């Protein structure tokens, strides 16, 4: 191991040196550069990305993108560089085919993604959820906000930001609609779950219709949509270096409206966000109400992105201050109470109950008897994760993929926790990845529990759909988390698994079974986010600088509170 640093100039040459790399890493880095001379535009251009919580008091990092000693990518402490998507080489082709990209599935996936484009008055504004004519459409003929995220990332990586911009502006217009369910009016900031373009062949006009939860099964508003919208706005800004979109008064207002909804004061005793079951990717009753990890992690990431994007003008300043306070409290709460590793599990196992006052150790009055049997075997010696939910006398010990990956990407997880999460994924590979990446939630709930928690949902039977099913879309999140923690080999392994079946099976929405061996009972085929998730994973692994679009470095002001197990120490 030697002390070197590699900094790359615009034309791909090496400029300066000052981080820890192994000789092999330096070789790899140099050969990657000379092989393809991929231009990395790391010129310092001060963009809105430069502001972070700690920057308010700390200086800027001089090196926007380099590798840590532990092999993880530290792309930017205060990311001010503009990422460099390749330029379009032609409307129907991915850019610059090279050895990595020549898997036949890659070109097929691009074709399929382009096929899923939805146009409104001549402009592409999103991608349809699924292009499966063999199944009833339901709402799969709509553009879902959450589903569009991997599509948007693929387009950004390919140097095609226009569709992302159109999507951001279109959904912003939808946000300003009056939203009502029966007689009740929803908050102004609510973003739609999905929208659709209606063609009137007689008048030859096109109009948009949107669903804010009033048509959705279960009538739940999508809490995640607003968070994804902010995260995408930051990804767009980061990728293009164009801060003018985020700076538009309409975008600033849209952000403030979303933030007003989730920063408002109420009866809460916790900084986490209270929400109804099914308000995110898992959009049916699955016991993900209260304080589910997916929403908390997205909330945290969206707050951090908003902090980078908000103008410090008269209206923005107040929000910046509220965000800073909330982030501080939220990271403390999550890192302390949602974190589970062997040591913490053992502590809970030995908890005393019925404690009162400030000195209580078991603050939420968790009954050790409520610990499920599976968790004792599931917990590896080295490793840990953010559990599914924490509330009064309630810990949901299930492992949820999206929340844990977003925790890594947003740096809600400390570097030690990020390593522990990856350690757990690697030690429980069979359970979480199996034959097809990746379980949305592990393990499945069964029999009586399934009846009570899902309300006997026939779609969410054990090891199917959200209840222990495997979702290929999650591949992009796993890949990003792997790259951030310096484990590209795990991402490669998962991608190779997906490549054995995804295209042959016509890009299913999800797989069923303990190992994810069966195409999901009611899975749509040609599901766009399965296609886009694969593309993003491939492109990110091939060019890890794309990671900067969806990842944030740790903010030094949010220090870890607890140090619990060996896996926490490097
Ligand atoms: C299903 C999924 C949801 C997704 C939608 C469109 O309802 O549960 O997460 O957004 O399909 O693909």
Automatic annotation (TrEMBL):
Q: Name the Enzyme Commission number(s) assigned to this protein.
A: 3.2.1.26
Per the record, the GO terms for biological process are: sucrose catabolic process
Which reaction(s) does the protein catalyse, per the Swiss-Prot or TrEMBL entry?
Answer: Hydrolysis of terminal non-reducing beta-D-fructofuranoside residues in beta-D-fructofuranosides
**Alphabetized Pfam families for the sequence:** Glyco_hydro_100
Keyword list, A-Z: Carbohydrate metabolism, Glycosidase, Hydrolase
For this protein, the record's SUPFAM superfamilies field holds: Six-hairpin glycosidases
Under the GO molecular function aspect, what terms does this record hold? endo-alpha-N-acetylgalactosaminidase activity; sucrose alpha-glucosidase activity
Q: What superkingdom does the record give?
A: Eukaryota
Family membership:
Belongs to the glycosyl hydrolase 100 family.
What is this protein's function per UniProt? Invertase that cleaves sucrose into glucose and fructose.
Q: What is this protein called?
A: Alkaline/neutral invertase
Name the species this protein comes from: Actinidia rufa
Q: What's the source species' lineage?
A: Eukaryota, Viridiplantae, Streptophyta, Embryophyta, Tracheophyta
């Amino acid at each position: 191991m030697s002390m070197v640093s590699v900094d790359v100039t615009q034309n791909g040459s090496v400029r300066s040196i000052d981080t820890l790399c192994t000789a092999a890493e330096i070789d790899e880095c140099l050969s990657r550069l000379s092989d393809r001379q991929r231009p990395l535009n790391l010129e310092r251009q001060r963009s809105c990305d430069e502001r972070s919580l700690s920057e308010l008091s700390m200086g800027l990092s001089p090196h926007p993108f380099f590798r840590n000693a532990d092999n993880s990518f530290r792309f930017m402490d205060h990311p001010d560089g503009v990422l460099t998507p390749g330029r379009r080489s032609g409307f129907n082709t991915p850019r610059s085919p090279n050895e990595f990209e020549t898997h036949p599935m890659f070109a097929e996936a691009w074709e399929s993604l382009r096929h899923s484009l939805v146009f409104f008055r001549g402009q592409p504004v999103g991608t349809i959820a699924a292009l499966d004519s063999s199944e009833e459409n339901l709402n799969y003929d709509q553009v879902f906000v959450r589903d569009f995220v991997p599509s948007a990332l693929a387009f950004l990586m390919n140097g095609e930001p226009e569709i992302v911009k159109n999507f951001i502006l279109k959904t912003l217009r939808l946000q300003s609609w009056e939203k009502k369910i029966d007689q009740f009016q929803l908050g102004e900031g609510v973003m739609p779950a999905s929208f659709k373009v209606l063609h009137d062949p007689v008048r030859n006009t096109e109009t948009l219709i949107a669903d804010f939860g009033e048509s959705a099964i279960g009538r739940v508003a999508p809490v995640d949509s607003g968070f994804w919208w902010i995260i995408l706005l930051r990804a767009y800004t980061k990728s293009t270096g164009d801060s003018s979109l985020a700076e538009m008064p309409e975008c600033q207002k849209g952000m403030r409206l979303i933030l007003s909804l989730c920063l408002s004061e109420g009866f809460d005793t916790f900084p986490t966000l209270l929400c109804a079951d099914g308000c995110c990717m898992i959009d049916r009753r699955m016991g993900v109400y209260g304080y589910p990890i997916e929403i908390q992690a997205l909330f945290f990431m969206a707050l951090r992105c908003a902090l980078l994007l908000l103008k410090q003008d008269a209206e923005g300043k107040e929000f910046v201050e509220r965000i800073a306070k909330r982030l501080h409290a939220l990271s403390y709460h999550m890192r302390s109470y949602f974190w589970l590793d062997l040591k913490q599990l053992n502590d809970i196992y030995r908890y005393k109950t019925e404690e009162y006052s400030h000195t209580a150790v078991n603050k939420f009055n968790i009954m050790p008897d409520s610990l499920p049997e599976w968790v004792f075997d599931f917990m590896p010696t080295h490793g840990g994760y953010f559990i599914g939910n924490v509330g009064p006398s309630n810990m949901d010990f299930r492992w949820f993929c999206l929340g844990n990956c977003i925790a890594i990407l947003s740096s809600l997880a400390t570097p030690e926790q990020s390593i522990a999460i990856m350690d757990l994924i690697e030690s429980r590979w069979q359970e979480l990845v199996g034959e097809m990446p990746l379980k949305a939630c592990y393990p499945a709930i069964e029999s009586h529990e399934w009846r009570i928690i899902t309300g006997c949902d026939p779609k969410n039977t054990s090891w199917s759909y959200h209840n222990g099913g495997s979702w290929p879309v999650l591949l992009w999140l796993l890949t990003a988390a792997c790259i951030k923690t310096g484990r590209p080999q795990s991402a490669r392994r998962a991608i190779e698994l997906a490549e054995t079946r995804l295209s042959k099976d016509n890009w299913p929405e999800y797989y069923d079974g303990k190992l994810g061996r069966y195409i999901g009972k009611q899975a749509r085929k040609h599901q766009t986010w399965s296609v886009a998730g694969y593309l993003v994973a491939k492109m990110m692994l091939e060019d890890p600088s794309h990671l900067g679009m969806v990842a944030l470095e740790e903010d030094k002001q949010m220090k870890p509170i607890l140090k619990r197990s060996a896996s926490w120490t490097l």
